[in-house]
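Protein record
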Amino acid sequence: MLPDDLRIIREQLGRAPRGVVDIAHRCACGAPDVVRTEPRLPDGTPFPTSYYLTCPRLASAIGTLESEGVMREMEARLQTDPALALQYRQAHEHYLAKREELGHVDEIAGISAGGMPDRVKCLHVLAGHALAAGPGVNPFGDEVLALAGPYWLRNPCAGGPVAAIDCGTNSIRILIADVDADGALVELVREMRIVRLGEGVDSTGEFSPAALNRTFAACEEYRTLIDAHGVTSVRFVATSASRDVTNRAAFVEGVHQRLGVSPEVITGKEEAELSFLGAVRGLTNLESPVLVVDIGGGSTEFVLGDFTTDAHIKSSVSMNIGCVRMTERHLADDPPNKSQIAAVEVDVTGAFNEAQRTVDFSQAKTVVGVAGTVTTVSAMAMDLQRYEPEVIHGSTLTSAQVEDLTQRLLSMTRAERAALPFMHEGRIDVIAGGAMILRELARRTSPISIRVSEYDILDGIVYRLAQTGS
């Protein structure tokens, strides 16, 4: 259980929860909606309802179904449909077996809940069982959930801020925020730590102990922020570097120990949707289709889509080029020599050629660039004396600017890059490699200028968690 789960359950039920063992199922918004309970409560009372429904919105929807006579109709079908009756009895047996895992209580031996196996007495119980066990176990529970419809598509089960954490090859970032009644993001905390989790992964195939320690130290900082802001749900998304390493289990265990959640390596489709949604929500006057390009440490994502109030993805692809990967692979000298630069160009050109087989850049009427490479180059274009997100967000980069700035970064020494007042310490070594990817994007989409967004997948995760719950 997450540290805040019992508080959320108390709010849902309007009373202190009793005998909770763990969370049997979570709503799409991240809040608990079914808890697993002890077969004997702390006060000694036998308690047959192993799976207890806590979500107030689903409970309300089910109450409406009960008042409409759904239980009578279901029980009547039990008398005439032998196959259905057999499935229902098997659900009863499954319920008993799972409860016995928690301990035997003589007083309720052989008694499950909800009227099983011969009657239908409580749809809430059957729905809770169906959510906990998954589809295909409790036939009436599955029917109840289908009849209730997408009950989560309004506000989350419990109000309050949510946290999104994105752990990439170069950095780990957190956004703690809420979404107001008008659908606007209310940002409470936005932090980044350069941890270089992917350092050396390209050659070794595993996370180094030092990289893991840096990442876990950042997680401990983020745990403090989460607790201080009363976060109701947390989602931790890990991309690129964590997909194929041999010691991924150590990474997952370390994160879970510190944050109470496990890193998710999300599908390319979901990553594209979240990145697109986050990038475009904070920009105005966008003409669709929009091409969003996220230049990360280990990979670069290309997403083409339309935007009104939500993301409608037309196509997307992820390529294994990123600022860290290109730097570690090729840019060894300070500054890099011509042959090293040429080697990056070969990799980047090949990756863009491959990407365009899936994503048709020519369809784009707006191009949006996100992540640290793009925002840092924008700060350089405006000659900022410090990094100012509010100034950078919504700015534009022309193809000519990107060409000039990339060449300047490639010709600079590390000390010269470090002296730039807007340059984050963690980007000093990798910014030139990232700029070469940005330069190729500008060449491929010219004469369209690149709109710069400070918002990205973190914001997309928060919108999904806090607004739609999906």
User: Anything to note?
Assistant: The CA atoms of residues 212 and 250 lie 8 Å apart.
